[in-house]
């Protein structure tokens, strides 16, 4: 993936996460557990997966990944990248 594509993906994911979490704190705390911070819950996680599919055309089933593989901003970005 080209660097500009990666930057664009990151920015789109940050926008999605900020909307789903309802907090711009996600931009600053990219390696912290969003569930532990109270920024993401199970309903938010489902909304996030739907948004990822809508925006990127990437389908990630909730049963496909463990929560600890998708609980930080950077891990979520990685999961989308490896499926593009």
Automatic annotation (TrEMBL):
Instruction: Write down which residues bear the modification named O-(pantetheine 4'-phosphoryl)serine.
Output: 42
Biological process GO annotation list?
cell wall organization; lipoteichoic acid biosynthetic process
- Pathway annotation: Cell wall biogenesis; lipoteichoic acid biosynthesis
Task: Fill in the PTM field for this protein.
Answer: 4'-phosphopantetheine is transferred from CoA to a specific serine of apo-DCP.
Which residue numbers delimit the Carrier domain? 7-84
Molecular function in Gene Ontology: D-alanyl carrier activity; ligase activity
What does the entry list under GO cellular component?
A: cytoplasm
| Keywords assigned by UniProt, alphabetized | Cell wall biogenesis/degradation, Cytoplasm, Ligase, Phosphopantetheine, Phosphoprotein
Query: Which Pfam families does the entry link to?
Result: PP-binding (PF00550)
**Cell compartments where the protein resides:** Cytoplasm
For this protein, the record's SUPFAM superfamilies field holds: ACP-like (SSF47336)
Main location per the UniProt record: cytoplasm
Q: Does the keyword Lipid biosynthesis apply?
A: no
Question: In its keyword annotation, does this UniProt entry include Mitochondrion?
Answer: no
Q: Which NCBIfam families match?
A: dltC, PRK05087.1
Q: Which family does it belong to?
A: Belongs to the DltC family.
Query: What is known about what this protein does?
Result: Carrier protein involved in the D-alanylation of lipoteichoic acid (LTA). The loading of thioester-linked D-alanine onto DltC is catalyzed by D-alanine--D-alanyl carrier protein ligase DltA. The DltC-carried D-alanyl group is further transferred to cell membrane phosphatidylglycerol (PG) by forming an ester bond, probably catalyzed by DltD. D-alanylation of LTA plays an important role in modulating the properties of the cell wall in Gram-positive bacteria, influencing the net charge of the cell wall.
Q: What is this protein called?
A: D-alanyl carrier protein
Q: What is the lineage of its organism?
A: Bacteria, Bacillati, Actinomycetota, Coriobacteriia, Eggerthellales
């Amino acid at each position: 993936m080209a660097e500009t594509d990666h930057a664009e993906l990151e920015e789109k994911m940050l926008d999605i996460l900020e909307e789903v979490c309802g907090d711009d704190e996600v931009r600053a705390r990219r390696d912290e557990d969003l569930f532990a911070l109270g920024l993401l819950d199970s309903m938010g996680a489902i909304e996030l997966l739907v948004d990822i599919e809508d925006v990127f055309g990437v389908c990630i089933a909730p049963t496909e990944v463990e929560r600890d593989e998708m609980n930080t901003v950077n891990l979520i970005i990685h999961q989308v990248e490896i499926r593009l």
